[in-house]
Known about the structure:
- There is one protein chain.
- The protein has 194 residues and is α+β, with helices and mostly antiparallel strands.
- The chain folds into 2 domains: 1-92; 99-189, Alpha-Beta Plaits.
- The chain contains 4 helices and 4 strands.
- It has helices at 2-15, 22-91, 99-109, 144-154, and strands at residues 116-124, 130-143, 161-170, 177-189.
- Strands 1-2-4-3 form a 4-stranded antiparallel sheet.
- Strand 1 (116-124) and strand 2 form a beta hairpin.
- The model has no long low-confidence stretch (mean pLDDT 83).
Amino acid sequence: MKNISSVLQPLLEKSGWQRLDRREKMMVAGLGAFVFVFLLYTLFFAPLLTNRTDLQKSLVKKEAQLQEIRKMQQEYSLLQTQSTDIKSRIGRRPKGFTLFSFIEQQAAKTRVKKNIKYMKPSEVEREGVLQESRVDMKLQEITTANLVAFLERLESEENVIYINRLSIKDHGKEAGYLNAVLQVLTFRLKDGGV
């Protein structure tokens, strides 16, 4: 204790601490305490509070991301189930099934074969075991009733056949007749697909 006071005594004398009256010493001590508390807060507590706030924000963000991942996982499971269902329905189609021939059959059954201006089949490569087959076609001078009957027979959940696009216009020359352009699509298993 003597060593510390012997070191502090010359410092206090040089600083003029001894010459200050009691009120001035209180003001300097108060200012020193304020500076000490300010530095303590600035150097230690403020960064801790900032880090805590940042961690809380990060935690909220990570929880939102986790919820999004869970939602995507549910959607993926649903898609997997639907894919399996689609594959099983495709597997139940008759051997040698083609979208083009299916459309021709439905056109014959609904008596719109004569209204077909063109049919253009195409294949679209996709990732996975399914390949997209589609037919773009145009019907001319068709009645609304015949078009509706054809469309009803064409879309087949059982055969996984969907109308992807449909555009209908008045024929223009004769009242009550329409022109329709549509894209019909289905899927088939790629060669070697399970």
